[in-house]
Design a protein that fits this description.
The complex is a heterotrimer of chains A (about 350), B (about 290) and C (about 350). With about 350 residues, chain A is mainly α. Chain A contains 14 helices and no strands. The two termini of chain A are about 30 Å apart. Chain C is globular and about 65 Å long. In chain C, α9 runs antiparallel to α12 and α14 crosses α15. Chain C contains 15 helices and no strands. Chain C is about 80% helix and about 0% strand. The N terminus and C terminus of chain C are likely disordered. The termini of chain C are far apart. Chain C has one domain: ABC transporter involved in vitamin B12 uptake, BtuC (Orthogonal Bundle), CATH 1.10.3470.10. At the A-C interface, α5, α6, α7 and α14 of A face α7, α8 and α15 of C.
Amino acid sequence: MAAGASRDTRALSAGLAGLALCLLLVCGLSIAVGSRSIDFSVVVDALGGHAQNSTEQTVVNDIRVPRTLLGLLVGAALGLSGALLQGVTRNPLADPSIMGLSAGAAAFVVLGISVLDIRDLGGYVWLAFAGTAVAAVLVYGVASFGREGATPIKLALAGAAVAAGLWSVTTGVVMTDVDALDQIRFWQVGSLAGRNMPVLEQVAPFLAIGIVLALVCGRALNGIALGDSTARALGQRVEATRALILVAVTVLCGAATAACGPIVFVGLVVPHVARAICGPDYRWILPYCLLLAPAIFLVCDVLGRIVLAPGELEVGVVMGVLGAPFFIALVRYRNLAEL
Amino acid sequence: MSAPNGNGRRRHELRAEDLALGYGSHEVLAEVDLEIPDGRVTAVIGANACGKSTLLRGLARLLRPRAGAVYLDGKRIHRMKTLDVAAELGLLPQSPNAPDGITVSDLVGRGRYPHQGWLRQWSAGDEAAVAAALEATGTAELAGRRVQELSGGQRQRVWVAMALAQETDLLLLDEPTTFLDINHQIELLDLLSDLNRRSGKTIVIVLHDLNMACRYADHIVAMKDGRIFVEGPPREVVDAASVSAVFGVDCEVIPDPVSGAPLVVPRSRHHAPVEEGVTGSRAVSSRG
Amino acid sequence: MTGGVTTLRTAPVGASIRTLRLHRRRSRFALTALLGALAFALFVITLTVGSSSIPVTDVLASLFGLESNEGVDFIVHDLRLPIAGAALCVGLALGIAGTLFQQLLNNPLAAPEFVGISAGASLAAVSGIVLFAWSGIEISLAALAGAFAAAILIYALAWRGGISGYRLILIGIGLTELMLALVTYLIARAQIYDAREATHWLTGSIGQSGADELRALIVVLLLLSPLALLLNRSLRTLQLGDDAARGLGARVETARLGLLAIAVALVAFATAVAGPIAFVALVAGPIAHRILGPTQSSILAAGFVGASIVLVADLIAQQVLPVALPTGVVTGAVGAPYLLWVLVTLNRQGRGG
């Protein structure tokens, strides 16, 4: 029995290492590929700081590298927050956008643009946080009334309801304020384009804190997955854990949405892939999400850069288009609807 | 135990021939030949996942057979119109769903669906049937109450009343006693016996409780692994060997002191007589 | 127990059931009529207000052709009646469709905007506006086509030997996300005036389409509402669960498909007229349910409630607010808190999911 367990652990560790390697490659891809084609050797030179063409040096160092790093952090944040949400709600369909969190962030951001005239990303970050938190509290609070607590279907519908309501608010504002519309419509697509060093510096601390918080919660999530009473019987402090996890989710989603706008499906789909690989143990699922999500995210971003070159297709759209069939297959074939 | 074979009611024939049923790619029943005795109470028993509910659902036309057919009065049940079937066969499924806030008389009234049409919505005959159904199940005084407020036993009786209001000669019930406590179980089974004896209804019931089946049924159908293992009157069919084969449990079968039907007394690791005359807690168990 | 004794015993029970039933039918009729009167009253009020307010008696006279006053007639018939009529019809259609969805999918939170139909209409309409510079009737036709296409797609994807309400809703939510992602993309890519027009259409407003769309909606309403009422029996039988319904002789999949088709058609044509107006379809059913009492046939009542909501929202949006806003903004702002309250109270009784 012990030998088998360590074999599993070894296999999973090997998998993780392989994934890390893949991620490295994808990062390389993200730095090397873009709407402007730059030779690989030039890229390497630029990274070292001595490329001959200064434009290309700028492109690589000031545009692509920050963008890649941001993609890493945001992808990881979204994947982890999805896994956390799914674990804490015991709902395989939880995801920041289905739960209405992205809509909350968007509504607050647009209100900030219109009412408080906030235009810089720093302000967006705090607004997005507040919006995410408000939406999270609303959705979870409303869905958990009743004997059964927050069942998957109630959460999904409460999330859809809150999202729709907040979207109404958002549209109401942009209809009266054309300038706000012009600002927010680009932000709402969800993109890594145009995000460079200052943006990265602004959100990186939050994302880092959130990621650390999330990774610490693995064991606690395993307990919660068994049900509240069982978890308590095992000695776990369920309320405290839940609060901590929700804080982590808010920080992660808030910062990610603030930086890139609302991105759908990453948080939903990646935890399922991770679970398919490593089973229901959150101590493994979380590290896998940490590596898998940014890999998928950056791949989609690169795809978006290639597909419409010299223009660009935003990563939010690519993920939406590719993610939906996956989600639908999930609902159809995993009989999740019965949960 | 036998039902009066008259009352002016028609004889009905419900049988399965070489029936195979399944869900998706998974086959549950194969090569089942069964004739339901007319005017009797038939109990379908077996271990979990042996196919007893599937068999009932196949007989009730809820499942399309993969092979073979179910015949009602000589006609293939799947070729008949749904309403024609509903006029002869009533069903109480396993987890019926009562709409929010519905009252007892409303729910029982829904049982009149096959007798109503687009133009003929509600008639005196319908009301009489509903009233009779409520009377027969002893739920008349609950008529105005909401179903969701009733106890489990009362609710099951109301569902039976709905099936009764359909005024069919055959009644199929899928595990109606599963979540009831013992007095409600007996209440319900007594009611079904009444219906069988007074009005000669043919009753087919899936039961998980072997002893209740022995006591109330005229005919037992024991299923194992998707096939009929044995069928017949309880006294002939239920003995230690067949119980062991169907349920995998070692037992003694003695006559029930109350009804005379076979009573299955299971043996277990902790309760096995080592020698004749030594029973219960004084038995020596091999493991603590 | 002989037959004679049974008849004697059942007579008083039968009588009490009959009185119960008649009493409830009468109260249901009265309440529905009351709701209808309310909708009509709001309709008339909408005709009286505006840049010049016309007294109620004149409006009624003009409506029913009792007096002929050219000035009043012009204002009432040519200017205001199209708007008020559109509000009335859109509200009726959305209310009826909403309660049909909720009863078919057995969930009080099922609504076309979640199930993906509105998203399909939106995607088609916005594509038309942004990509093809369509306007007027072309956008409405696109919305119509988009709604039907989305409905068919979702139904097909949710079909797995039958339709489960949960599966339909969840797949609908998934597809909605996809379609809305594409909509956001299109709006971001568009010229700012196209973007504004698209956003305006998306919010939903009564006056945004012409007489042809309204006429189509009226025809559809007149044809399909009676059909829905006739199918009401099947609907109520479906509520008992698929197995019990089949046991009673209902043709489950056919009935469900038919009723869904009616609901989809009503939503599609209403969306073609006014865009995806939020929340009306969602809340009309529960409100009617609450007024009429549970399990009463509430299709017509829900229609009237829907009509009242849209008429009131339009009044507020056009007349009361300092800045004229699209109707959809008001319904959203009013509907969202109501919806959350419904969720809370329903969930407290354990009925929300």
